[in-house]
Amino acid sequence: MAGKNYTAEQIIGMLREAEVRFSGGEKTGAICRGLGISEQSYYRWRREYGGLKVTQAARLKSLEKENARLRKAVSNLTWTL
Predict the structure, then answer these.
(1) Residue 36: what pLDDT?
(2) Whole-angstrom distance, CA of residue 51 vs CA of residue 47
(3) Each residue of 53-71: b (16+ CB within 10 Å) or e?
(4) In this predicted structure, what is the pLDDT of residue 77?
(5) Which residue ranges in the chain fall short of pLDDT 50?
(6) Does residue 27 lie in a domain region?
């Protein structure tokens, strides 16, 4: 079964909604079912995006993409030498 691809904005929105529901006394399983995600996804997203604002998450993704591009460039240069 293929998973859904959520944007960073959607993920951060879900994490914020989960925090609000936690403060209301709901359990993790019920919150995840309500959001339509697995608990594993919730914990992975919380580890990666917890505490980030949408602009910070966008910056993080752009830096990761730039880092991958630079790694590839260095790899290509060392391969030709």
Answers:
(1) 94
(2) 9
(3) eeeebeeeeeeeeeeeeee
(4) 87
(5) 1
(6) yes
User: Cα angle vertex 14, ends 41, 24, to 5°?
Assistant: 105
CA distance 67 to 46: 23
What distance separates the 2 farthest-apart alpha carbons in the chain?
A: 60
The verdict on residue 31 lying in a domain is yes
Domain membership flag for residue 13:
yes
Measured distance CA(41)–CA(29) in Å, rounded: 12
Question: Rounded to two decimals, what is the model's pTM?
Answer: 0.72
The reported pLDDT for the residue numbered 57 is 86
Q: Which domain holds residue 73?
A: 8-80
